[in-house]
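Let us work through a complete example step by step.
Step 1: write down the sequence.
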Amino acid sequence: MVHDINSGRYIESGTVVRAYSPAGLYWKQGLICSTALYVNQDDLIFSACHFDKQPHEGDYHSEFDEPVVEELRLAAALVLPIGYTCGVLPIYPLIDSLGFAEYIDLLNTDTIPRLRALLRTKLHFSQERPWQDGPPPPTLGGVPYKFRDETAPSNLQRRIYDAIDASDHVLMRGIGAFVRAGMLTEHRCLFEAAHYGLASF
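Step 2: predict the structure and record it as tokens.
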């Protein structure tokens, strides 16, 4: 569920902003799609996605509905274009997100600096159990990000993004399972378990 940054209330549509942990592997180049952004500023990687009320009441793409399906659509555009024989790109979105009850203009030149500043001040990490959130971004004291050496295939990324129907809850469950499997592979003790969630797809 996405909660508004100002009121704290649950919102059904608007913009969700999420930082990524250095536990993953990333493209160096950013990506701009019709309703989503992937931003790499070296010490802080984050996404911003417009989202709408889920079209199928009760047809959940995950048990927690987090991230929202529009974020998974962007995640698929990031992780799928490398091809079957070229390894994997295990991105690692953090748990906390910032929600806005509006569709932020993602093409406005002021948007990225504003969202970056908000993430730096609003993200919180557990002091007692620092492992439960994933390692924080470098700008918040974490280790540096790791990047793929290749140039990002931005045209293919946008084609994948445009081809995904976020209202297809079965497809979104599959993408969600794939993204989470990649996250699990970053933990050696869970490497085998990473494949269990893909068995039914």
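Step 3: interpret the result. The CA atoms of residues 99 and 163 lie 25 Å apart.
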